[in-house]
């Protein structure tokens, strides 16, 4: 299986994070979103990183939510469908907050 993110360092003190679902125009799934959350936490803690480039592999940056299915946020257990759907929305919306709270531009 392909990793949802490709992360590299194109220049000193710069981290490039590329969404890696080019065949789906990098449409967001729970797996991709969770990988982004984890990477953002790593970047925020990395004092040597001074700038972040967020991009998408292939011809599209990000088409939005994958309409074929987002999947399940990490805490979803399937016991309460409305609660799980709300948790999916929270999971993805917190990604924007994570991006905005990064200490790096």
Mean pLDDT equals 95
**Structural class based on helices, strands and sheet pairing:** alpha+beta
Percent strand: 15-25%
Stretches with pLDDT under 50, minimum 5 residues: none
What is the helical fraction, as a range of percent?
25-40%
Profile the largest sheet: 3 strands, mixed
Number of helices: 2
- Beta strand count: 3
Distance between the termini: 31 Å
The largest sheet has its strands arranged as 1-2-3
What coarse outline follows from CA principal-axis ratios?
Answer: globular
Listing every helix as H and every strand as E from the N terminus to the C terminus, the arrangement reads EEHEH
As a whole number of angstroms, the C-alpha radius of gyration is 14 Å
Task: Write the SSE topology.
Blueprint lengths: L4 E7 L2 E6 L10 H16 L5 E6 L24 H21 L4
Parallel strand pairs: 2-3
Antiparallel strand pairs: 1-2
Helix pairs in contact: 1-2
Overall description:
This protein is α+β, with helices and mostly antiparallel strands and 105 residues long. Helices cover 35% and strands 18% of the residues. It is built from two helices and three strands. It has helices at residues 30-45, 81-101, and strands spanning 5-11, 14-19, 51-56. It has a three-stranded mixed β-sheet with strand order 1-2-3, covered by helices on one side.
